[in-house]
Amino acid sequence: MCNPRRVRVQATRKIAEAWRTEIKQAATARGDVSSEARMTQLISDYLPEPARRAFEQAMRSSPDWELTDGEYRREVPGGHVAYRPDTGELEIVVRLSVAIEAVGTAKLVAEGEVVDEVTAEGIGTYYADGFGGITEEHAKRQAEKAADAKLTELAEQRTASLKQKAEDKAKHELKKRQREATEQAKLSAEHKLTTQAQELQTGLDVRAGEQLEQVQAETLKGIFQLVAAGYSAALQEYAAQYGQNLQVSEEDGVIAIEFELER
To answer: At the N or C end, where does the chain have fewer CB atoms within 10 A?
Structure first.
């Protein structure tokens, strides 16, 4: 057996791997969608003059109506009803509003590729006389295998290090543009808010119109009740002055007044 000999093998591998980093920003936009429905009609469209006078007389003493700036006003769900004695106009206004919110996001991206080269060496041992079957060829294969193993480890370490440095540097640069991302997120949120408002507007307009019709029906019912109350007050005043045995009763919304006239 001869002294052992060594075989050195050097291997080189190129590194080329892509990297990518990003920063994100979010912004919230808030607003509301509003709709108004109104109608104005003359009270004479509903009441003849005697009934109008009875209505106005009863309105003056009704706790449901408040005189403000020359008009009688009554609050209703989502709006108000106003009556102007000087013009005889009855106005009904309904307003609906819905609060809305939208979130927008923006993302700034940086990407690239790290390129480098790593080198590793492997050593194999053999005997000139081929002792133990370990020939120079066998030793060379051992050296190549060892070099390749070291090369893989070095390449992984080098790639990870280069990628980390590149990503850290890019992220630092992206942070300098954070205001840009914030503005983009804000614009995105406002755009979404506008779209959401447009989608809601039509439905809200329909709801406002439907509620106006409902309030109109309830208001007219209340007006006719005031007319009845006005007539009732006038008749009771007349009976108190000119009659006797006054009896007043009400059932199912019908007011019955009985009295005897003095002769």
So the answer is: C
Q: Tell me, yes or no, if the pTM score tops 0.85.
A: no
Quick: pLDDT tens for 229-244.
766 666 656 566 555 5
Q: Mind listing the pLDDT tens digit for each residue in 12-30?
A: 999 998 999 999 999 999 9
**Which of 130, 145, 142, 144 is closest to 4 using CA atoms?**
130
Per-residue burial over 192-217, b = 16 or more CB atoms within 10 Å of its CB, e = otherwise: bbeebbeeeeeebbebbeebbeebbe
